[in-house]
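User: Quick one: structure for sequence A, then sequence B.

Assistant: Sequence A:
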Amino acid sequence: MNVVEEIRKAAYQIDPIYTQRWSPRSFQDKEIPDDVLRSLFEAARWAPSAANVQPWRFVFARTAEDRERFHAFIDESNVVWCQKAPVLVAVISKTDEERFNGANPTHAFDTGAAWGYLALEATRKGLIAHGMGGFDRQKAKEVLGIPENYFVNVIVAIGYQGEIELLDEAYRDREKPSDRKPQESFVFEGLFDEE
């Protein structure tokens, strides 16, 4: 039994892809073939969205120059480990929609579904995808040329998992999959009942 199976045990029968997906920080120095990378975005393409608006947008960086551009707005504590990732992706959502007469109230929800599809496809392809919220959103918009009516939700580091020894020592203790809260803490029947 590997460390993921020791820590992550589903309470009900589900496909193992859900428990196998987690967010390591250690990356190998290995490029992702273009067809494999594009397959992640293809999976995201098929996510559900309200009124089929598909508000998600992705800007990815795989050249050294483009990754350096991303490092300019990512928090230093994240750059320490994500600088070794061969691909960085900004996950963006369009906040307005003509069909909704203004704001799109589900832009982040729908884009989250697309990110979930991308993350699961990455796991299926033997990759890791680590989403991070530690970055300057306004600076990201400026650096990447993103218009005001778009929101930068997260930055994702994607690549092949590396050995723990490749990580800065400060991050090694955290390089393990996490468990999840039990359903009873977030699923309620009939009425909301969080104590």
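Sequence B:
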Amino acid sequence: MDVSELRQDYQIGALDREHMAADPFRQFDVWFKAALSSKDLREPNAMTLATAGADGKVTARTVLLKAWDEKGFVFYTNYNSHKAHQIAENSNVALLFPWLTMERQVEICGRAEKVSLAESFAYFASRPFSSRLGAWVSHQSSVITSRSLLEMKFDEMKRKFANGEVPLPDFWGGYRVVPETVEFWQGRTSRLHDRFLYSRQPEGGWNLERLSP
């Protein structure tokens, strides 16, 4: 299959300096609300998380944004997972929101740190019963011989917590990505895309620059 001719000319929108917010969080709020209202975009909170351990080997996977504010962007996972081990060795990570149907993407680069136990508990308690059970069942990233082992463990946990009260596992919780840079990308015709980069300044505040496509 020849994919070299697969291409699309982006013509939906434009991004101008005068319309950019003073900081990336307010700009993200504008774009995220637009993504939520889009009828063509599934799971607008889905984001690619790229991590690298001490050996420098990079891995990437899709996780879900579950909270964000001016402190950073939060996702939840198993603290024994491969991504968690890499973050423990190297807290520098990147997030990417690929809002392809809107011809937009947002890239966030920064440092990942664990959220508080209270934050993890509050979110865990809000999850559906089956999702809370799933957190106990999966030893994330470990090798298993068959799916039936997961299903057996799930049935075991369902019986164990039949009263509906599922405690927060001590190996499960959230990370907050504290951004150092945030880039907003808008596709444009002829591949002359609009790119704006917010960079955190040492003295506080953010610097905004247009990047060449």
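The mean pLDDT is 96. The first helix runs from residue 24 to 37.

User: Thanks, that's what I needed.
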